[in-house]
Design a protein that fits this description.
By secondary structure, the chain is mainly beta. The protein folds into two domains: about 100 residues, no CATH class; about 180 residues, Protocatechuate 3,4-Dioxygenase, subunit A, CATH 2.60.130.10. The protein contains five helices and 21 strands. Strands 6, 9, 11, 12, 17, 20 and 21 form a seven-stranded mixed β-sheet that branches. A four-stranded antiparallel β-sheet has the order 16-13-18-19, with no helix packed on it.
Amino acid sequence: MDNDDILKGRLLSRREILGLFGLGGAAALVVACTGGDDDEGNVNPTISPAQASVIPTTAAEATATAVSTGSTASTGSTGSGVVATTAAAATSTSLPSCIVLPELTEGPYFIDEKLERSDIRADSESGDERPGTPLVLTLNVVAVSGASCAPLEGAMVDVWHCDALGAYSGFNDTAEGFSTVGEDWLRGFQNTDGSGRVEFTTIYPGWYRGRATHIHFKVRKDNMEFTSQWFFDDSLSDEVHANETPYNEDGATGRLQNAQDSIYNQSGDMLLLDVQPSGDGYASTFTIGIQM
């Protein structure tokens, strides 16, 4: 299993963006798509609003949008350095204040364990904690409707990823050289609170053949499901894998840089986590928006 991910989505061209919104102004937009393959092996995209993810724009971008459309904009802080914006639409042609992100495949390592927990480092039965540098992920989930973003309460957010040496729990993978059947470390879910927030304590992920360093996530609510992946800055991953234990047991030789990862290249840096030092590890906050 050394090819776990295929992109499900594509970038819209500027012409398609303008046609979608009926606008003459510029915007950066990516939509999640589903559909079959054509005779040439290309995905025939079908835009599915329930499979799209968004992040708020910056206050400056919201203001620029407001000026270009004749609307006004108000801004508010999420409390994590991410600025959520809401454009008050004075016309029917104002852009939403959120930008859509691509959906990526869940890969072969997802297990619907239904493990509701914030700290996902340990195996739920043995209590043995997977070694690695601590990483705290704070996620803000918002619902997008028209030109506004509002906290999405009661959404189920799953997170799963490999350990420091590239193994996933719950699998016998002879190709990658690990057998972890019956174990469930580095997996879990949380339901968003009234402010749309969840928090996970985990470790900085390792790597395995054919992939850059990444974390998988899934958001579900009612009949909506969205799946994608986060990535890490190459220089930080280089540092972690070269200098920290147990990552340096495996080293960084063979680990793909983001630019070499076809999945990262399809999403660019829109799914790149902003990771900051925190205590004896790292922390990151990311806003996930769901078009409802």
